[in-house]
Amino acid sequence: MKLDKKQIIGYLLSAAAGSVLTLAAVWAAGAAGDGGLWSRDFPDAAAEGGQAVVENSFSDVGADGETGPGRILAQEPDTVLKMYGIPMENYDMEEGTVRSGESFSSLMNRLGVGQKQAYDLSERSRGVFDLRQMRVGNEYHVFYPKDEEHVPDYLVYDKDGRSYVLFTLKDTLAVEVVQREIVTKMDYAEVTIGTSLWTDVQKSGAPILLALKLADIYAWTIDFFALQKGDSFRAVYQTMYCEGRLLSVEIVPYAVFVHQGREYEVYYYQTENDSNTYWNERGESMRKAFLKAPLSFTRVSSRFGTRVHPITRKVQQHNGVDYAAPKGTPVMAIGDGTVEFAGRKGNEGNMVKIRHNSVYQSAYLHLSKFGKGIRSGCRVAQGQVIGYVGSTGRSTGNHLDFRIWKNGSPVNPLKVSSPPAVPIGETGMPAFRQAMAEAVALRDRFVAEDAVMALLKNICTVE
């Protein structure tokens, strides 16, 4: 018997209906205000014909609104007509960008707006949009009435990915900041490292922002400079889109990273009185006292220990780790502390030294310049930019020489162990375990749906 595509999909999906409806019930409880962790983040469930209906975040959405199998992250962007509500049949539209050194008045003059009207419009902007916030390179769209003199009726300035400013010049002058529609979606990725984390994430079809998010979440646990071929991760993640453009990867409800044969699970859980939001399966914070590395997107060019110095050519002890990176790469404090020294110091060049507590100190050498407000005696927070990569002092090229002392003695920064932050308390564990269960259920749903689609692809021939 030959089956058409809809019949095959129907048979396969009906087999998994039980697990999907169970998850729908979890979502429905959250949507009904029953305290589910994902009540604001996950798709709503609704009753229809006596059955729970779950929004399908895996569907291809066509221009006619029809859906089919396959995952999509966002619909195509709306047209200018729909975005701005301007009847395009009556207008010619031109687009451009704000130029260097250009003020609002000079922009308006360039677009054909008279000086008085530009001034009146700037007055209308007070309390609505600060015209000084217009940025070089940001786009604008200007609308000129057809068959009339070249004076615009509307100007739309793209403020950022989430909003735009609509200037109305016809009839009554008006200025309005319009918030774009933001769409949140859940998705799932499985990636095995073959070349590099960033390259392999892109090859998988997942957004590169997911790699950045995972690097941030695991910053205290995994040294991303030491990832190896065969390392892998699985992650459920929430994205935010605006008119088809990816804005951000907001949260990661569940992830497991396999590094050097060891699994590191992580769960998203928001507590009332703690800024920590990612925890392992034991309720221990993924945040620790120190970051694993003080900068991003680079490589280790020289390790701790005896080496031949690249300038003197003599064998000597190297009490730090060198990270090769482009000039200007931000350098972050690995932990909270007090700056003991910030300035130029002989062979070390521009250097910042931080005392974190009674045991640990860290130093950052050969900086091109210092972070804003960094000076001796100031307090710094973990992750705060304290300087930028350079090649000052005795150096052969742009890099960061990073050093750590424990009880006054230099130690290998790549081998420093750090205790976790305060874990979830005993009273909070039941709610955390419930959050874990919901995240795992969501993961299983994605895995099941992917398995169904793979089965369709591999064993079904549809005429």
What does this 3D model show about the protein?
This protein has 463 residues and is of the alpha+beta class. The chain folds into four domains: 5-55, no CATH class; 86-179, Nuclear Transport Factor 2, Chain: A, CATH 3.10.450.350; 182-279, Nuclear Transport Factor 2, Chain: A (Roll); 299-415, Glucose Permease (Domain IIA) (Distorted Sandwich), CATH 2.70.70.10. The chain contains eight helices and 27 strands. The longest helix is centred in the last third of the chain and has 31 residues, at 429-459. The two termini are 12 Å apart. Residues 15-80 have low confidence and may be disordered.
Count of separate structural domains:
4
What is the CA-atom radius of gyration, in angstroms? Answer: 28 Å
**Which percent range describes the beta-strand content?**
25-35%
The fourth-level CATH homologous superfamily of the largest domain is Glucose Permease (Domain IIA)
Biggest β-sheet strands, sense, barrel: 10 strands, antiparallel
Q: Tell me the span between the first and last alpha carbons.
A: 12 Å
What is the CATH class name of the largest domain? Mainly Beta
Mean pLDDT: 80
CATH fold-level label of the largest domain:
Glucose Permease (Domain IIA)
Number of strands: 27
CATH A-level architecture of the largest domain: Distorted Sandwich
The parts where pLDDT drops under 50 for at least 5 residues are: 15-80
User: What is the structural class?
Assistant: alpha+beta
User: What's the shape?
Assistant: globular
Helix content: 10-25%
Count of helical segments? Answer: 8
